[in-house]
Inverse folding.
């Protein structure tokens, strides 16, 4: 096996825009249609007591477990924000075994609780594990710079230079400042920049304008990259999901 199909999606806690509808069941259905080997999810609702009472169809299992089970994937969850009614964070779903994972707190203020969910994934017949890091960065640029610095330090320390690496998620980087900080220092490339000359427009999902979501990689070539904008995805979350097909080199 030389090819990986991956996706990244900020799922808005399994709720539609303005939290009017529960969308996690539609999300499960449409994620299946992407046929992704590895899925990077942000704003995953691990628990929420009030929403569970509000919606009859609220899954009994945490959203990351519910989605992983529906796809027959393994899952790792990084709990970032904790509050009276529950918690949410990032998750990585994988068709292949997740042999190790760690969630590193990169919060820089009390109002935005963020983490880097770092998994090592064992792909059959590959000599090295794939390092997969799911990120969701802050809204303010100076905060994101601090978080990217921590991300760079983690990669330099924890990821062997020649190991395959994928970093995906919601970078909140509409000014496109993150790419220089990652690509030059870590020899990474961004999937949509590689194929289309610029990062994908992924927000808002009905008519994407801002380039918030990214897929950075090392040790692969990119064969395909797509933004899944409009219906049905725009009824699921305020972000559009991204998908890419990557070939190991």
């Amino acid at each position: 096996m030389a090819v990986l199909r991956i996706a990244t999606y900020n799922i808005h806690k399994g709720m539609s825009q303005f939290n009017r509808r529960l969308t996690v069941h539609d999300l499960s259905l449409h994620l299946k249609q992407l046929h992704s080997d590895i899925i990077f999810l942000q704003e995953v609702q691990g628990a929420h007591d009030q929403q569970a009472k509000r919606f009859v169809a609220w899954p009994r299992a945490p959203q990351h477990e519910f989605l992983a089970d529906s796809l027959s994937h393994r899952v790792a969850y990084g709990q970032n924000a904790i509050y009276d009614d529950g918690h949410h964070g990032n998750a990585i779903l994988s068709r292949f075994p997740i042999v190790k994972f760690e969630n590193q707190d990169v919060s820089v203020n009390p109002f935005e609780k963020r983490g880097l969910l770092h998994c090592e994934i064992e792909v059959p017949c590959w000599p090295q594990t794939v390092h997969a890091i799911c990120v969701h960065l802050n809204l303010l640029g100076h905060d994101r710079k601090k978080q990217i610095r921590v991300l760079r330090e983690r990669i330099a320390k924890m990821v062997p230079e020649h190991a395959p690496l994928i970093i995906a998620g919601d970078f909140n980087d509409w000014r496109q400042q993150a790419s220089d900080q990652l690509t030059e220092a870590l020899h990474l490339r961004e999937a949509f920049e590689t194929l289309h000359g610029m990062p994908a427009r992924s927000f808002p999902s009905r008519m994407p304008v801002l380039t918030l979501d990214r897929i950075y990689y090392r040790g692969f070539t990119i064969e395909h990259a797509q933004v899944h904008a409009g219906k049905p995805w725009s009824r699921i979350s305020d972000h559009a999901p991204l998908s890419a097909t990557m070939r190991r080199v």
Remarks:
- The chain has a mean pLDDT of 95.
- The radius of gyration is 17 Å.
